[in-house]
Write a structure and sequence with these properties.
Length: 391
């Protein structure tokens, strides 16, 4: 989720790394991780074609491409395809939420064929995918919550032997409230039309991104599919060390194992397809040619932000992590731009402007989030200043 944590949170997180190292054997004994040679075979029982590696297009079944082409031929009238990628950014996700809300108010927001979300973007993505009827819920999700609706800090002694510095039970409850029967039905309906909602997590054992097809899960008919979607959304927003990882039970080579999934932002701040996936090649494979436009919402700034750092461990770590995440996000914009250029996809990106100078004093501060939401809303309503190149 890459939220802006205060120094105490960073301190607790740092302490947890050392303390859980002493008690790590207890946690490890409770796991049965997938052996490396079986990683590509691991699958969730009862499901098919619901995920693939985010760094390898070879893990995408070609039959899926033909299925999508056939669904779109029946369900979509236009030959034009609009893609939306929503990045991580924690509480700064309020910017993207406001932008989408204002874009709807302007009456110019298109129906997106593919929506991808990672970290806080994974919480925005379902609303963006299902469109205008969910705008009010999207607004509430970023203007009517605060830190206590997301996490509860553990005490210093509470993290001993634990897998995280904070308890994200409130986040689970929040996600569960949004993933309703109505939303599930909408996901199934739009998936059948050939539209796709893709959410990114990180398989922490493999150190690899995983892309989940949420509509395929919703339409699988499997018991527990709603719970799996909730797990994926929570996992995508779970900062390693701060929030607990999400454990998923899988089968490989006839044996049962488990996987640990954490914040998708650990791998990428934003994504569309694996770098070795080409939409041009997909057109040749399926016999359909389409015009494509990509919109990327970067929930954060891309310019340097000066601040005087005190010579203390937590302050130095906090500033360094913030800088790392920002530059990772910039790198992702360049990667997506290069892929768009290669495949003749029109590229558009926007990010929090340098002129926004408010700082939040606590994680998920309501005043900060409402100000960012309002900023995004005004941009969306009056006309978004899309950039056709990365910064």
């Amino acid at each position: 989720m890459t939220i802006r944590l205060d120094r105490r949170a960073f301190s607790i997180g740092a302490m947890s790394l050392g303390l859980t190292g002493c008690a790590g054997a207890t946690v490890e004994q409770l796991r049965d991780p997938v052996p490396e040679p079986l990683l590509d075979q691991a699958a969730l029982p009862g499901y098919k074609n619901i995920r693939y590696w985010g760094d390898d297009a070879g893990s995408i079944d070609p039959a899926v491409l033909h299925e999508i082409a056939a669904q779109q031929a029946r369900g979509l009238k236009s030959n034009r395809r609009y893609f939306l990628s929503i990045s991580g950014g924690g509480s700064s996700g309020a910017y993207g939420a406001g932008l989408l809300f204002g874009w709807s108010a302007a009456g110019t927001r298109p129906e997106f064929t593919i929506v991808t979300g990672i970290s806080t973007g994974s919480l925005t993505a379902p609303f963006a995918f299902l469109g205008h009827p969910y705008d009010d819920e999207l607004r509430a999700a970023y203007t009517e919550i605060e830190g206590s609706d997301i996490f509860v800090r553990r005490s210093l002694f509470g993290i001993i032997g634990s897998d995280s510095a904070a308890d994200n039970s409130p986040l689970r409850k929040l996600v569960s409230n949004y993933v309703t029967e109505k939303m599930m039905a909408g996901l199934v309906r739009e998936h059948a039309r050939g539209r796709r909602l893709l959410i990114g997590t990180t398989n922490i054992d493999a150190e690899r991104p995983v892309i989940w097809d949420i509509g395929a899960i919703a339409g699988s008919g499997q018991p527990g599919s709603e719970k799996l979607i909730e797990d994926i959304l929570v996992a995508s927003a779970s900062i390693p060390g701060v929030f607990p990882p999400v454990r998923l039970n899988v089968v490989a080579d006839g044996q049962r194992f488990d996987e640990l999934h954490v914040d998708g932002g650990t791998s990428n701040q934003a994504f569309l397809f694996p770098s070795n996936f080409s939409t041009r090649d997909a057109d040749l494979e399926t016999g359909f040619k389409r015009e494509r436009t990509l919109y990327v919402i970067r929930n954060g700034k891309v310019t340097p932000e000066y601040s005087q750092v005190k010579p203390r461990l937590t302050a130095i770590v906090a500033k360094s992590v913030s800088s790392l995440i920002k530059n990772q996000g910039i790198g992702d914009l360049y990667r997506m731009y290069a892929l768009a250029q290669r495949d003749n996809i029109a590229f558009n990106a926007t990010w929090v402007p340098e002129s926004f100078t408010m700082e939040e004093t606590t994680p998920f501060e309501p005043k900060f989030m409402r100000a960012l939401f309002d900023l995004g809303y005004e941009e969306g309503r009056s006309g978004i200043n899309w950039k056709q190149q990365p910064p």
